[in-house]
């Protein structure tokens, strides 16, 4: 039972990550592989504050979201001058820098040893400790993220995001400040990823840099692409499928050492298959094909 | 010229040593349709790109109702009241026809994030209003039945018509239309020209770049003939058509 709850909590965390990345990559068309960096920043801010200052849950999570959002703006700004493949490389650079800082600033982040013993959160006198309680907490933030995203993409703001994705020149000629939209959407997405990071830190109670590598970013992006970029439900389906699928491997009776590798092969294979035969994913309306609607 | 809406003076633009605009000056009056003709590479589209901020000019001045256009980014120019269409059609192909038009409206509260969350009513109210206006605009040009189809489902001519409607929906006073009837079937050409002809009556001014000389002669109040980035001839359609310099340039 606890195992099942554990899987559901993980699904929830990845749901927040993929839905927020979908806002950046699926709706605004800014392909980013820095999402795990924002995820990590959220986790580390919460962990460091909780460990060093014993500050309350809400304060920590708000600080994590704000710092991550600010750094999101920093990554969003290059998107004004460079695009497509070159922008992906810029996000990659941010990802690598973030990992290096987490991994090497030993006195502050604990380096490769990570930060153990993150205290469980207390929310309005409610001590969150059992799996079920964590599932409720994560579920609450999932719902919040989804509601915020839905509100955004169905608004005129979301319409402009799609226009930016499809044809920046048209958007500019229509009087839209494309630059501001790009930076803003990056800030929102990064802030949401920090929420997922906070959930992870509180739930696992131990974090180290290996959870926030570029592989993790690529995994989150895979969820978005396989689920369907540019649709609200796509990343939800993607998160459920990609997080639970490898767990099913356990029941096939593979030894865990083999299962870990099979998992990687499975992801890679899925990604290739989708890129070839269904680039828009399960439910998407947008595919990252070259020259699709861009001029 | 006191009633000039747009005044351009001494515009220069050089691409790798090729003069696309050479000391080009012109004025657009209120409620007039100004035709801009000339051979390929004469600098017509470059002029549009400079005036709408997509390309920086090398020199000169351009003011719209007293606002200097040359320092502004494209989106600000659209807000000031100078809108354009593109020679190679630009639309958001995957969005519906209606949404393309809605994108063009200025000052939408729902396009600001804080209104999306904290003033949803005001945003929705304006959206509903804009929707009505957009549908009326589409109705005017006979595209209302297609309002919910994706823009890419329209025929080429209908897409050109749609881009004209988008341009109108920005509310801009001055519309720069880049070859609105190029490569279009005659009936559709008529529809688009009729729409353009009705614009001065609605308080709009137009600069029309077009290779179809018959169309230009039909709808324009005034015509400028340009070649190699400079103005060669200016006057009524008849005057320009009979100008020996123009005849010579076209015969070359």
Structure description:
The complex is a heterodimer of chains A (295) and B (252). Chain A is mainly alpha-helical and 295 residues long. Chain A has one domain. Chain A is 72% helix and 1% strand. Chain A has a two-stranded antiparallel ribbon. Chain A is globular. Chain B is of the alpha/beta class. Chain B has a single domain, classed as Rossmann fold (3-Layer(aba) Sandwich). Chain B contains ten helices and ten strands. Chain B has helices at residues 44-51, 74-80, 97-103, 113-118, 120-140, 156-169, 186-197, 213-219, 237-242, 244-251, and strands spanning 4-15, 18-29, 33-37, 59-64, 67-68, 82-84, 174-178, 205-209, 222-227, 230-235. In chain B, a hairpin with a 2-residue loop joins β9 and β10 (230-235). The two termini of chain B are 34 Å apart. The interface between A and B is medium-sized, with 28 and 35 residues.
Brief summary of the model shown:
The complex is a heterodimer of chains A (295) and B (252). Helix content of chain A is 72%, strand content 1%.
Residues in helix, % of chain B: 25-40%
Number of H- or I-type helical stretches of chain B: 10
The name of the CATH architecture of chain B is 3-Layer(aba) Sandwich
CATH topology of chain B: Rossmann fold
Strand order of the largest sheet of chain A: 1-2
* Tally of helical runs of chain A: 12
CATH homologous superfamily descriptor of chain B = P-loop containing nucleotide triphosphate hydrolases
Structural class of chain A: mainly alpha
List the secondary-structure elements of chain A in sequence, H or E.
Answer: HHHHHEEHHHHHHH
Residue stretches of chain B low in confidence (pLDDT < 50, at least 5 long) are: none
Mean pLDDT of chain A: 90
Number of domains of chain A: 1
Q: Approximately what portion of the residues of chain A adopt beta-strand conformation?
A: under 5%
Number of strands of chain B: 10
- Largest inter-chain contact set: A-B, 28 and 35 residues
Strand order of the main beta sheet of chain B, please? 6-7-8-3-9-10
Question: What is the mean pLDDT of chain B?
Answer: 92
The CATH class designation of chain B is: Alpha Beta
């Amino acid at each position: 039972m606890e195992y099942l709850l554990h899987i559901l909590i993980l699904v929830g965390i990845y749901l927040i990550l993929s839905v927020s990345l979908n806002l950046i990559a699926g709706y605004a068309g800014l392909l980013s592989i820095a999402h795990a960096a924002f995820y990590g920043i959220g986790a580390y801010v919460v962990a460091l504050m909780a460990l060093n200052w014993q500050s309350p849950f809400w304060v920590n999570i708000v600080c994590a979201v704000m710092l991550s959002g600010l750094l999101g703006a920093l990554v969003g700004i290059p998107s004004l001058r460079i695009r497509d493949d070159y922008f992906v490389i810029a996000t990659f650079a941010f990802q690598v820098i973030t990992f290096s800082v987490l991994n090497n600033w030993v006195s502050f982040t604990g380096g490769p040893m990570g930060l153990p013993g993150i205290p469980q959160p207390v929310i309005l006198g409610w001590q969150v400790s059992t799996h079920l309680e964590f599932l409720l907490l994560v579920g609450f933030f999932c719902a919040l993220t989804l509601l915020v995203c839905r509100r955004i993409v169905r608004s005129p703001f979301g319409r402009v995001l799609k226009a930016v994705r499809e044809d920046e020149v048209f958007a500019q000629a229509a009087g839209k400040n494309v630059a501001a939209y790009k930076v803003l959407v990056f800030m929102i997405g990064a802030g949401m990823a920090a929420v997922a990071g906070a959930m992870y830190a509180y739930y696992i109670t131990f974090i180290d840099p290996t959870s926030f590598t570029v592989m993790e970013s690529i995994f989150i992006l895979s969820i978005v692409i396989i689920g369907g970029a540019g649709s609200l439900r796509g990343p939800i389906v993607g998160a459920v499928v990609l997080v639970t699928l490898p767990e099913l491997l356990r029941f096939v009776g593979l030894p865990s050492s083999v299962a870990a590798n099979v998992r990687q092969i499975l992801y890679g294979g899925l990604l290739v298959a989708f890129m070839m035969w269904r680039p828009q994913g399960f439910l998407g309306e947008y595919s990252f094909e070259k020259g699709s609607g861009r001029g | 010229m006191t009633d000039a809406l747009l005044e351009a003076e001494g515009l220069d633009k050089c691409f790798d040593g090729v003069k696309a605009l050479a000391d080009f000056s012109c004025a657009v009056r209120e409620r007039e349709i100004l035709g801009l003709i000339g051979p390929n590479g004469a600098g017509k589209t470059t002029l549009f790109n400079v005036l709408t901020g997509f390309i920086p000019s090398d020199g000169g001045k351009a003011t719209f109702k007293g606002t200097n256009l040359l320092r502004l980014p494209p989106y600000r120019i659209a807000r000031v009241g100078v809108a354009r269409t593109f020679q190679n059609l630009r639309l958001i192909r995957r969005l519906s026809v209606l949404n393309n038009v809605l994108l063009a409206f200025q000052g939408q509260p729902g396009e600001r994030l804080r209104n999306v969350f904290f003033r949803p009513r005001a945003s929705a109210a304006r959206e509903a209003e804009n929707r009505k206006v957009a549908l009326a605009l589409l109705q005017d040009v006979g595209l209302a039945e297609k309002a919910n189809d994706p823009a890419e489902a329209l025929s080429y001519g209908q897409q050109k018509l749609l881009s004209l409607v988008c341009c109108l929906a920005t509310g801009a006073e001055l519309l720069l239309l880049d070859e609105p009837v190029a490569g279009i079937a005659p009936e559709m050409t008529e529809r688009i020209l009729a729409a353009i002809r009705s614009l001065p009556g609605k308080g709009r001014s137009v600069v029309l770049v077009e290779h179809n000389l018959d169309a230009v002669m039909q709808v324009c109040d005034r015509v400028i003939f340009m070649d190699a980035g400079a103005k060669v001839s200016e006057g009524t359609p008849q005057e320009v058509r009979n100008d020996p310099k123009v005849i010579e340039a076209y015969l070359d």
